[in-house]
Amino acid sequence: MVLTLLLLLLLPAASRARDTITPGQPLRGNDTLVSSGAGSFVLGFFSPPGSNSTYVGIWYAKVPVRTVVWVANRAAPVRGAASESAGATLSVSSECALAVADANATVVWRSLSSSSPRPCAARIQDDGNLVVSDQRGRVVWQGFDHPTDTLLPGMRLGVDFAAGANMTLTAWASPSDPSPSPVVAAMDTSGDPEVFIWNGPAKVWRSGPWDGVQFTGVPDTVTYKGMGFSFRFVNDGREATYSFQVRDAGIVSRLVLNSTGVGGGLMQRWTWLDVAGAWALYWYAPKDQCDALSPCGPNGVCDTNKVPACSCLPGFTPRSPASWAMRDGRDGCVRATPLDCANRTDGFLVLPHAKVPDATRAVVDFNSSLEQCRQRCLRNCSCTAYASANLTAAPGRRGCVMWTGGLEDLRVYPSFGQELYFRLAAADLGTWQHCSSRRRYMHIAQSE
């Protein structure tokens, strides 16, 4: 009895899973690391269903359906299924580089080495981040700077200019193949930063710029607060990044990019439901025909509550009436009346509840009020529209975004979105000032 009691007391310490590898103590193919603390994540070797290749990945420890959220060697697998790859290893070198090797000690994947003080150790953290630290505790490499297809709480999507890191999501080629597909979600930092989904060379979805509360193309984000979500967008010259957090530790949520759109759009937010024992789809994009990139062309407006969904901005007519009649609005719209910037007779109407236009070529001024931006836009004959850059800042100093040329990828929502002030000639301003549609398009300003 004494011997049995002693064994029971010693068992937890003997069976406690490790969370770290060090030089000379690699992770082998039949072993795993488990994050300390809540024990939320596992790092180990795995083979996707239907695959005969082995990868090093990270997955949830307490979700019974294995859900891989990060893969080290996604483009360079160890040949053979995980059950056949017991001799494979994940090691950290004295130069602080991670390496995945097969049973023959052939390295198939390696992270960048570092000149940091040695020795280094690699540890799986309880947020799902694999971190390589030197003996002073400084981070020399981390998985969160190299996302695969999944954004976890605290992980950033975007560009860290100071660190020289571009953090993008790249979908798996298929459910059985984690190698990179052509479907990529990336932050475009030209103009006013926004997230695009690319399928090869083609842009297929746009988040819209951040308005201080949310991306203008994801207006229902404000409804997430009741679920304990919080969102962070940083655009300070050192980085332009997006991340999210979940305050309730009981809520497991991830943002994932897939290459097929099965079950919803290419970008999907999932939450784990313990009661159902399954992942529930919380949000996805693209969601509808207006989420396609610029379905109504320049100066066209997409509205899913209208039939047809495409219409021209007030003061504009279809560029190709024949195509428009066939409900193909991709050619967009042209002005009915030319602008008269030289004589300062132009003015603005407002389009409410808008996903503002593609902002990759827009100009952002965070130091001007909305009225100052209106004056600047009127004086610039190339300026065609402006909008507030930050809906949460103090009144009068919110900054603005200004567009030139055609207004691409415009859509409106029933109750979300923001106000876009678009430029019109005086004759069209007068027409719309007195028509019944003034309830939607309000006459705002004319130059003095």
UniProtKB/TrEMBL annotation:
Membrane topology term: Single-pass type I membrane protein
GO molecular function annotation: protein serine/threonine kinase activity
Keyword Repeat listed: no
Superkingdom as given in the UniProt entry: Eukaryota
Keywords recorded for this protein, A-Z: Disulfide bond, EGF-like domain, Receptor, Signal
Domain Apple: 341-425
Protein name: non-specific serine/threonine protein kinase
Annotated source species: Zea mays (Maize)
